Amino acid sequence: MSGIATNGRVSTLRGPPVGEIDGRRVRVVLTIACTGVLAALAASLFVAGARKNAQITALHRHGVPVVVTVTSCMGLLGGSGSNAAGYTCRGSFALHDHRYLDNIPGSRDRPPGTTLHAVTLESDPGLLTTTSQLASDRASAGVFLLPTVLVLVLVLVVAVLLALRRSRRRSPPASRH
Question: Which of 13-17, 22-26, 119-123 has the lowest mean pLDDT?
């Protein structure tokens, strides 16, 4: 050894030494990030719910009947891959002299060549559902329940953070000895 005392440090790099992290700044950044994610999640769930309700309403009001012929079905595996979780089937149908190939809603196994009564939109033939599925589907305010709860949580979190901030501004800083 050279006999030079280093106090445990080999050298100093530019900036603060490792381990000196401003905990307050980290909390602020994490809080802002979490509230931003919560707001984005709530907004996206509201949009998805409104879109789903609009699709159901459009199919009920403007849907045109089509006959879908099953072209293929594939088994879906669940969990560890050792048990069946359902099926995904594809089918073809004609609408205004155009042929379309689309997924058939549901998870039942259907032999190729089976025909089903379905409903689609002339303006969006990619939106397809079976008549039995459409009969049970209704636009619902229930799709807005989770995003509403998330917004209420967001409002509560922001209110608590603002109250904490106000109380810190009012109280005198603690003296250090």
Answer: 13-17
